[in-house]
Automatic annotation (TrEMBL):
A GO CC term assigned to this protein in UniProt: Golgi apparatus
Superkingdom: Eukaryota
Domain Trichome birefringence-like C-terminal intervals: 2-168
MF terms (GO), sorted A to Z: O-acetyltransferase activity
Transmembrane segments: none
Species of the source: Aegilops tauschii subsp. strangulata
Pfam families: PC-Esterase
Protein name: Trichome birefringence-like C-terminal domain-containing protein
Family: Belongs to the PC-esterase family. TBL subfamily.
Length: 179
């Protein structure tokens, strides 16, 4: 997970280019752009063009009412409706769940001009607010005892579908090569 809350605000991160620190220090998302561009350039340069290259987009979180440490909750037993998605995830609305879409836009930008294919699993996963372990921990007071887990997935469906999509992309890639 790449987000501003994961790094100390008091000490700026140091990003390097060509073995030298970038001055002045970059903000978190500008730093991410440098990192992703460097990674995609390395992959393009070092991995043969005949190799299938995929880059998976971010997995969305489903906090409601604030971040995990500020009264946020992902206690949901229902799928989100399509008309709800932007209010939960669109960065223009500044919600706590905007991170995946922000990072995905940086990933997409880094992949422009490469032969790395984007495997976008974020949008379909945004619907599944019900599929996190937060309410499925098996005990009455599980959330009070263990807290919430709004990042990982526990119900059959979401990760299984990701694997199905990946398998289909791989099969499609190899069938194209046969022609």
């Amino acid at each position: 997970r790449w987000g501003p809350d994961k790094f100390p605000k008091e000490t700026p991160l140091v990003f390097y280019r060509g073995g030298k620190p970038i001055e002045p220090p970059l903000g978190i998302f500008d730093g991410l752009k440098v990192v992703l561009k460097s990674m995609s350039s390395y992959i393009e340069r070092e991995v043969p063009s005949t190799t299938m290259k995929l880059w998976r987009t971010q997995s969305p979180r489903h906090f409601d009412g604030g971040e995990w440490d500020h009264n946020g909750s992902c206690l949901s037993k229902r799928l989100l409706e399509e008309h709800e998605l932007d209010s939960w995830f669109d960065p223009r609305f500044g919600g706590v769940n905007k991170e995946a879409r922000l990072v995905n836009s940086v990933i997409e930008e880094a992949l422009v001009g490469t032969d790395i294919q984007l495997l976008n699993l974020t949008y379909m996963s945004e619907f599944r607010a019900d599929a996190h372990p937060a309410i499925w921990l098996g005990k009455k007071d599980a959330v009070a005892v263990w807290g919430q887990d709004c990042m990982h997935w526990c119900l059959p469906g979401v990760p299984d579908t990701w694997v199905d999509i990946l398998a289909a992309r791989i099969l499609h890639y190899f069938k194209q090569g046969e022609g």
